[in-house]
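From the pipeline queue, job 12 of 40. The input is one protein chain; the requested action is below.

Action: predict structure.
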Amino acid sequence: MKNRIANDLLSIGAVFLRPEQPFIWASGIKSPIYCDNRLTLTAPEVRNDVENALAALIKREYPDAEVLMGTSTAGIAHAAIVGHLMNLPMGYVRSGAKDHGRGNQIEGKLLPGQKVVVVEDLISTAGSCVDVVNVLREAGACVLGIASIFTYGMQKGLDRLAAAHVKNASLTNLDAVVEVAAREGYIRPEDAARVLKFRDNPSDESWIGGNA
């Protein structure tokens, strides 16, 4: 499953590897990879794979799930589609409370004690999804964990998830993406180690220029 979803994401450019011309993240970090899983929504065959795989993952990893909550904004559509497939209620969590109306930060009906799975498209340093988990817990929800499409597996993200005592289950990860990308010719085999070196220490730019 990890390799199939990795191939899907690579085939539509949702995950794009460019070790020779690094992308620059908002944080200023140079990266050999860019991920935009919103593209899965405009590719029906890939979307079908992703949403059905998310539903299967949630049934397997979180069989007691009662409500799905998407992260704002990228997780909302996935939570809605998977909620439909699983016949589960869904809602989403805003990045902050509204400054008008009822001032909601959680959109959709959520009762104290309900068992919730957070649906996220991408996990890098895990800061935003841990914030969502905390908002849901403060509202009285029992958060079973996170279901995500892709995770980098960065140590900072792993540490944050562990500190928050929250489980994440992803459809695929950077290791699978790099393996498929090297095999299918998206990158040169010798670039695989460079990409993984970036993941292991994003602040170390020695991977740039082929210094793996």
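Job complete. The two ends are 28 Å apart (CA to CA).
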